[in-house]
Hints:
By secondary structure, this protein is mainly beta.
Amino acid sequence: xxxxRQYGLLVLALCASLVMTATATPAQGLDEMSQDxxxxxxxxxxxxxxxxxxxxxxxxxxxxxxxxxxxxxxGTLRGQEGxxxxxxxxxxxxxxxxxxxxAVDLNNIGHIxxxxxxxxxxxxxxxxCCDVVNRGVAxxxxxxxxxxxxxxxxxxxxxxxxxxxxxxNGDVQQGQTMTGAPLIVHDKVLxxxxxAEFGVRGYITAYDLNSGKLVWRANSVGSDQEILFDPxxxxxxxxxxxxxxxxxxxxxxxEEWKLGGGTTWGWYTYDPKLNLIYYGTGNPGTWNPTQRPxxxxxxxxLIARNPDTGVAAxxxxxxxxxxxxxxxxxxxxxxxxxxxxNTVPTLTHFDRNGFAYVLxxxxxxxxxxxxxxxxxxxxxxxxxxxxxxxxDPAKMTKADVNVKNICPAAMGxxxxxxxxxxxxxxxxxxxxxxxxxxxxxxxxxYKAGFPYVGAILSMFPxxxxxxxxxxxxxxxxxGQTKWAINDPFQDYSGPLTTDGNVLFYGTLxxxxxxxxxxxxxVLYQFHAPSxxxxxxxxxMHGGKQYVAVLTGVGGWAALxxxxxxxxxxxxxxxxxxxxSLGDYTNLGGTLVVFSLN
Length: 597
């Protein structure tokens, strides 16, 4: 009887184990895989987006011996803003338009196992405001997930490149494009949309990983039903009270919300314990604030949602009634922070507007907001009690007035380039822009597929100097900068920190650099074939640590060079910043991989 009882218990245990295995989700697998430093399985390295590698074979004492291990052309010339993924013995990456996707065998360098070349609507590049860039592929459950510029999402078989399903997520004739990387949570593929400069109303969409079926979609602005806000339960992070009925609609005049922007072309993160995804929304439609009185919620907002239903848990608007094009799409880094003596699960966000926000990610409560670029002057501070910026009236833009010397410029004190967080030092390492602008707004009418901007901008270096980019180590709670490196052009490449006490990043004029994390001293540099706006990753293969980065100048930062523009106010005001960039680098997409030998 005892033996039978023991046998029965064993069978029950095995059955329970099988049930647990059968119900394990792709997200659980991804989360576990991302803890293996030998691979790079999520675009930002992990769900928390700290972009830190635990590898230390390459370290501060030997990084000067770094060599180029191998290179590969992307097959395109325009800006490369993404990063490769490494899954086991395979590397996957996506180029700028026309969005070639490659699978490379790391055991046989030079062997392209498969290449995906999607057929695209050739109208797409004409409505891409800021170059035909792409921020990379995603992986889950044997599938590679791909976004293309003409607003399609594809699921490819990771072994063969075969299309398993595809969906149309937007309409390029309306100005809708896609440049962001997907994020997979549970069995949902989360994707956003670009095109606010064409009057596009932003949204985030969840598709079923296995079938491509639309599960839910949440707009950034509109009715409660459209934005998936529960008036009684969704919390306004600034006030810590429920948002109430029609929290978005009542902050717009007339029907301007239908052109309300709030696009979602940035990065997404996820907290498995709270089961919440986090992302930011972009600018509110026209850049002329006079045409859209009110706070224009929920543009320029950090939003937390349940990934299974899409319903918002909380929302915190960083820049109400945006008058400067300070898109809030930058990544939200999930760490634990000590604030006022208490350890809190926090979300840290370095915004385009020049402030680093630290929020309690459970409820969106603002804990800290410190200037990370010293030139920031559009607002004097962020009031921690109200959660709102204390705006300098002299820097508020309005129709038919040329407002001078606003810092940062619309390109932001930090744009899409993701930061890195080292859990050992508890510091953030950010590659940023040190730039200002003159801004003249004017009235504009909407026409589908045509620019809906309404402002003339001129950008220039801050402090009347030669520094346009800064890399620095920063304490987001205290607001203290430990060290900083000044660069002549904007730093538009996401840095990577490592357990080897080395930070890697690239510059717009083509330098790939290794920096001592403790001091900021440059330990190694290599001039790449083109300027760097991609994000460094690291992986281990065959017992050797590698560091990889996509090179290929472009993006908004180098739009003049990418499109052959010369007038300073062209490229939404960015061209004047980089007139001399062509003296140092040229177009060309190349994956460059480094190792010690």
